[in-house]
Model the fold of this input.
Amino acid sequence: MMKTTPICSIQGHQLRWSRMLVGLVKNRYGSALFGAHVQPTIFPIICSLMATENREKSDDGSDEEEYVLPQDTMLILQQFLREKASANRNTQDECFEENWQLSQFWYNESTKQAIASVVQSLQKSSAVPENTFRVALLSAPSVYKIVSEINANAMLFEFDERFSCHGHHFHQYDYNRADEMNYLDEFRESFDLIIADPPFLSEECIEKMGIMMKKIAKPNCKLLLCSGAVVHDWAKKYIGVTMCEFQPEHERNLGNEFRSYANFDLDSIIKKNLPS
Done:
């Protein structure tokens, strides 16, 4: 008889297979591997493999059933999950889909390149040595990869914990906590450049983002805000930035007009770096 590995014991027959499979992956391999971007791929594989499962009565003859997978099937599943985790680490944010419930919209390639050119120019022209120049990205995960290739000290502040794959360069934060007295104190006056893309086009959100940006900014810190045109007055009032000509664009067309705001001459830097 083929040697099998127990998965879990389930009382009765009413629990759907899907719940059991979700529990299996989360309990054995961690919830981080079972995000929305992984689930659709894992399910067909596991369900296919489950065709070979054996149901064995418990030794006491009770109605409780033990669901098992053959050992070779478990090895295949484990290998798949290892490869998926490795792919997540290697591709980083590129493997993550936008989560619209978190108001995530990724920039297109030209916008990423433009922002990267700004980082590079400011880093080179700064009085701060390049190896200590620090960049903070607030709710702007889609530019982390390209910015981190220029600035090794780049830090991503993001609510979405999928981006914890960036290790110590990731800090999970919530703009709603901006009013808390000691919130983000460990980053007080730490950054030379802050790039922020607030998740919502509301006065409350812009105000709270402003509180956090001012807390973590060094004196003379450069501030770049990418948000809707409707936040123009709030951006100036709470963050101290003014509207620029540069218009960030996204991979998907948004209904709101999107603009950039800065406390430095953003447009001159971008125009200077445009390909001739």
Notes: The first helix runs from residue 17 to 29. Helices lie at 17-29, 39-49, 71-91, 109-125, 144-148, 203-216, 232-239, 266-273.
